[in-house]
Amino acid sequence: MHKFNVVLYRPEIPGNTGTIGRSCLALNARLILIRPYGFDLSEKSVRRAGLDYWKYVQLTEYDSWEDFMASEKPTTSQLFFLSTKAQKNYYHAAFSPSSYLVFGQETKGLPKSLFEEFPSQFFKIPMYSDKVRSLNLANAATAVMYEAIRQIDYTSQTT
User: Fold this and answer.
1) CB within 8 A of 6, min separation 6: which ones?
2) Residue 153's pLDDT band (boundaries 50, 70, 90)?
3) What's the confidence (pLDDT) of residue 40?
4) Mind listing the domains of the chain with CATH numbers?
5) For residue 18, what are the CA distances in angstroms to 13, 30, 52, 82, 140?
6) 73-124 residue pLDDT tens
């Protein structure tokens, strides 16, 4: 059983996807990719970032956000969207093994329609410099994934 789900909405940079897939494998998280991608999954750069681990990643792919929602059927409380436009910090989120950590495109983020539909489920990673607009997607995903695993493991040890 996986610990939680990481969703990449229309990822554009193969190295980020490969790196996130490797982190998912390390934490026993499932990686969900929503098309279209800005690359082909068979590209060398995905394999290079994921190294020889890529073949072990628990990978699920969907053609659209609508297909993802119809197939996975997550509740609103299971969805955690990460965005620089959010007001709440991600460490205020209550992650569980059924959580879906949703990250947007490297250049565009998540669509406004998702923010309008799920405003209470948007979280940000704090940044204290006005010189940085956003973090690298792989770095951001890893930070949030480790907070999720910290909460999940802590909860399972105390119950």
Assistant:
1) 20, 24, 29, 30, 31, 32, 100, 101, 103, 141, 145
2) confident
3) 80
4) 5-158 (3.40.1280.10)
5) 9, 13, 10, 19, 14
6) 999 999 999 999 999 999 999 999 999 999 999 999 999 999 999 999 999 9
CA distance 31 to 2: 10
Name the DSSP letter for residue 29.
P
The first and second tokens of residue 20, run together, are: 């996130």
Provide the Cα torsion 153, 15, 100, 116; round to 10°. Answer: 140
Per the confidence metrics, is the pTM higher than 0.85? Answer: yes
Q: Which residues contact 14 (CB under 8 A, 6 or more apart)?
A: 38, 39, 41, 43, 45, 46, 49
Is residue 111 packed enough to be buried (19+ CB in 10 Å), middle (13-18) or exposed (0-12)? middle
Spatial neighbors of 9 by CB under 8 A, at least 6 apart, are 34, 65, 102, 103, 104, 105, 110, 111
